[in-house]
Every structure is written in C-alpha cells, then in structure tokens.
Amino acid sequence: EIDVGLIYGPGSTFHMRVEELFGEELVAVGPPSGTLSCDKPITLATLARLPLILPSRPHGLRMVIESAAHVARIKLEVRCEADSFRVLVSLVEQGLGYTILPLSAITGELDEGRLTYAPLGEPKIVREVVLGTPDTITSHATRKVIELTRDEIAQLTRSGTWRAKLRFRSGARTR
C-alpha cells in the first residue's frame, strides 16, 4: 500500500487522485565531442537523424518522447536501448549516440564536461511530474511529506537548480 508517490504524468492517465506538480522541458544530450550547443536549439527531426539511445518501451520517458515524435510525424530510429540512467549516460559519453533527458538529470555531467546538450526546438517535449495519492489522506505524516515535497520542489525551482514550471501554488497545504 502506497500513501503518496511522485509519478511521471500526464496526470490524466492515472486512475488515482493526482496533483500536477511541475513540467520540465527535455533536452537533446550528446557526447563532449558532439555537435550540440546549449546556445543553438535542435529540432526533433534533426535529432531523429542522429543515432539515438533511449529507454525501452514502456519506460515513461520513452513514451513521452515517442508521443511527441508521433504528433510531429517524425520517425525515431533508436540505435540502442538502456533503462538504467547510468548506462544511458555512459553510452552517450562514449560517443555511441544521443539521447533526450531533462536538464536536471545531467547537471553534474555537464559541469564536468562529460556531456553536451541543446534545447529542443519544435516540438518542445515536456515531462510532467504529478503527485499521486489515495482519494482520502488520513495520516498527518503523509500530509507532512506532501508539504515538504512541495516546499523542496519550489525551493529547487526558485534557486534555478531545477528549470521547471510549477503547476501548484507554493506554500499550499494539504488538508
């Protein structure tokens, strides 16, 4: 039994009470020797012509990326699949291909010069993060965990650590 969970959305696809917390744009990620530049957006169509390394289906990130590609009528040619974040990043670092991730997931690697990135032009791809709970929250501890989670997300967003668009009112309390 789970009292609360952070889930990649959109929230409309879940059969539980959900609250949208934030949306985070995904970026193209490449090796340090690659051609990506944080100053120059890359379209999904251009990225699709490069060797792609993505999580396998039905990984949530893969589904978000494929949905955006389908809407844009872009065919993705996936060279390799890796569900482990560490394996995915390692394969990209070694120059075996490119991937699509939220910027917050690779800040350490970027700071160390192990990866490069470019913002995605059209279409933008946004990963939604929602808070899932049972219909009735009875535990004071669960309400407190939800409040602390909201506060931490708001603080990380305000500080610039997370480049996310909040979907909730900062400081809101759970009843």
How many DSSP helices? 5
Helix-and-strand structural type: alpha+beta
Extract low-pLDDT stretches. none
Radius of gyration: 17 Å
Largest sheet descriptor: 6 strands, antiparallel
Report the principal-axis shape.
globular
DSSP strand count: 8
Residue share in helix: 25-40%
Hey, roughly how much beta strand do the residues contain?
A: 25-35%
The overall average pLDDT, rounded, is 88
Distance between the termini: 20 Å
Seen as an oligomer or otherwise, the chain set is single chain
User: From N to C, what is the helix and strand string?
Assistant: EEHEHEHEHEEHE
Question: In words, what does this structure look like?
Answer:
It is a single chain. With 175 residues, the protein is of the alpha+beta class. It contains five helices and eight strands, in the order ββαβαβαβαββαβ. The protein has helices spanning 44-48, 60-71, 85-93, 107-111, 140-159, and strands at 5-8, 17-30, 52-54, 78-81, 99-102, 116-119, 126-133, 164-166. The strands form two sheets. Strands 1, 2, 5, 6, 7 and 8 form a six-stranded antiparallel β-sheet that branches. It has a two-stranded parallel ribbon with strand order 3-4. Helix 2 (60-71) links the parallel strand 3 and strand 4. The longest helix has 20 residues, at 140-159. It is globular and about 50 Å long. The model has no long low-confidence stretch (mean pLDDT 88).
